[in-house]
Structures are given as C-alpha cells and as structure tokens.
C-alpha cells in the first residue's frame, strides 16, 4: 500500500506553510518586532495550529475518500 498522491501533496504543502510561518516568526524576532518570550509563544502557536489544521484537512479528505454511506437517488 502506498500513500495516495493527494495526501502526500497536501501534507507537503502544510509542511511548507508551517515552515514559512516559523520563518516569519524568526524574522520578526531578528528585526526586534517580537521579544524572545513572545517569539517562543508564537512558535508554539504556529506549530500547534499547523498540526491542527493539517489534521482537520486530513480527516475531511479521508472521510470523502471511501464513503461508507452511498447516496440513494429516487426516480
């Protein structure tokens, strides 16, 4: 069994999104817009929110992949 292409692609995109957001936090820390404590909190928030949104997307995709209930069309 291999990983379906949409799951691999979507997971990779969420990884890129998380890395980009962590890069923004790091850049904000370097420029002085964020203090060290606020940057640490922002890192935790970015990581948790990226994982949570990825998990929500994955669950939604998996539920639509092989539905257990088929629609019944009445004529």
UniProtKB/TrEMBL annotation:
<keyword id="KW-0813">Transport</keyword>
<feature type="transmembrane region" description="Helical">
    <location>
        <begin position="12"/>
        <end position="30"/>
    </location>
</feature>
<comment type="similarity">
    <text>Belongs to the V-ATPase e1/e2 subunit family.</text>
</comment>
<feature type="transmembrane region" description="Helical">
    <location>
        <begin position="42"/>
        <end position="63"/>
    </location>
</feature>
<keyword id="KW-0406">Ion transport</keyword>
<keyword id="KW-1133">Transmembrane helix</keyword>
<protein>
    <recommendedName>
        <fullName>V-type proton ATPase subunit</fullName>
    </recommendedName>
</protein>
<dbReference type="InterPro" id="IPR008389">
    <property type="entry name" value="ATPase_V0-cplx_e1/e2_su"/>
</dbReference>
<keyword id="KW-0812">Transmembrane</keyword>
<dbReference type="GO" id="GO:0033179">
    <property type="term" value="C:proton-transporting V-type ATPase, V0 domain"/>
</dbReference>
<keyword id="KW-0472">Membrane</keyword>
<dbReference type="Pfam" id="PF05493">
    <property type="entry name" value="ATP_synt_H"/>
</dbReference>
<dbReference type="GO" id="GO:0046961">
    <property type="term" value="F:proton-transporting ATPase activity, rotational mechanism"/>
</dbReference>
<keyword id="KW-0375">Hydrogen ion transport</keyword>
